[in-house]
Amino acid sequence: MNNDKLFFKIWRNQYLRFIITKFRILYEKNKKVKFLDYRDFKRYKEKEFVLEIDYQGNQLLKDGDLSEYPMVRIINLKDGIFNNVSSSIFENTLIEKIKFPPYRYNAPPLLTDINKLPNTVNSIKQFPYDLKIPIPKSIKKITISSNYYFIRDFSLVNYLKFSENENITNLKIIPTWRANSDSILIQNLFPKNLKTLDLGSYSQILNENVLPTSLEKLVFSSGYSMTFYSNKLLSLINLTHLSLSHQNVLLEPNSIPPNVTFLSIANLGNPVVDNSIIPRNLKTLIINPAFRPDYKGVSILYDTFPNSLTELKCEGFKLASIPKIFKNDDNCFFPKSIKSLSIGSNFSDGFKPGFFFPLKPPASSSSSSLCNITSITFGYYFNEIILPNILPKSLTFLKFGTNYNQPFLKDSIPPGCELKELIFGDYFNRLVDHTTIPIKSLQVLRFGSNFKVPLESIGFNKFESLKTFELDSKKYPYHIDLKSLEFPKSFETLILNRIFKFSSNIILNQDCIKNIIYKK
């Protein structure tokens, strides 16, 4: 008997179903609890359901206290009281992750015998690195709070003997406001089998053979300006995820490891981006321009994006070679592999027919292969009229940013497009009806807080597949009678701003709608 049949055999029994449901509710209610007092911690009744404890009491936990919670896996300890704690409080437990309070410079150690932790502990957050004690072999994931002295010289971490610990696979260094990344990483500093590394605000040169070749994910979670030099990281052949959150990132040609498939750059400072900067195996690219008072835009050259790319999010770009693209009608700016696209607002010089797909494809190409984009999200400031032949027929999801408020034309959404979800931003206040958007395929329609068009003009009864309609308007001026709107038989959910719950301007007629949700 397979698992599905066994489950349904048990589930059909009313008594067993009652017991299962009861314990499920108890689990959801008690799996994570917070204690402000030691007495509450001791008196808690449903201890056997607790998986995570956030202890904020002023009294230290004693040996044996945690063992009263047989299923607990994670504990978060309060700041200010856990100094010189003995690891014996964790004995006879199944705890896997310990979250210490944020490290304070010159504060006494939180846990002086960390090397005696039980083998079940595999993750420590806020590791007290001032302790010159080797990290236990059981630890696989560790987060270190850094201070000024640690950041100035990464070699100080040598006394933790990272390079000798083959079990650590995840290391994160959290910078503080005192951080000053003016040291250069040296060789043999990190665990040999490290998979994930977050270097915090490190902003200096990354030389060859400094980072372990085992790395699969590399993150810089903050920092000022950093330059990635050519061919310095080519040894990282296993790296597939790279996230750069510096305030200004400069990329030289061939500076990104070749096998990276996910690249996120919070603030790109390059004035021009071409295919020597973007690796050719990318699947996801999230990229933004540097925020500078003199910012004039980043120019992206034609053929910059690789044919492997399926998801692209970019803001604030200028398209340097738009004229070249549209002289040849069998080309378009984006590769055919892209399925999800989120773009910004600086497209006044290039947002024209043929932008997303070729207008005159080669005779050998089928119409279905011209474009695979199914999702487009326009940025906050985007506010341009969508002309015919702009959007691809392959679209199923379309979202406009907050500032968008342009007339929606009859062929803004191309004929034959099976759009399923259409979302307008908060400033949109234009007529949209069954003549301008697909009536057969659309399932979700959403208007923002400034929408003040009479709903009767939309013609809901013309939509064959509409399931959800959302109106987030906070000052909607018209009277609404839901029954007179004549929603189609497919309709299920109406989402309204919570203001409507107390408004006399709406007649609910709950019978004609399955579900009404009030949004905060």
Give the helices and strands, then pairings.
Elements: H1 3-11, H2 14-30, E1 32-35, H3 38-43, E2 52-55, E3 74-77, E4 97-99, E5 123-127, E6 141-145, H4 148-152, E7 170-174, E8 196-198, E9 217-220, E10 225-228, E11 241-244, E12 248-251, E13 262-268, E14 272-273, E15 284-289, E16 298-300, E17 311-314, E18 317-319, H5 322-327, E19 340-343, E20 375-378, E21 397-399, E22 421-423, E23 444-447, E24 468-471, E25 480-481, H6 482-485, E26 493-497, E27 506-507, E28 515-519
Parallel strand pairs: 1-2, 2-3, 3-4, 4-5, 5-6, 6-7, 7-8, 8-9, 9-11, 10-12, 11-13, 13-15, 14-16, 15-17, 16-18, 17-19, 19-20, 20-21, 21-22, 22-23, 23-24, 24-26, 25-27, 26-28
Protein name: FNIP repeat-containing protein
Organism: Dictyostelium discoideum
InterPro entries: FNIP (IPR008615), STK_FNIP-Repeat (IPR051251)
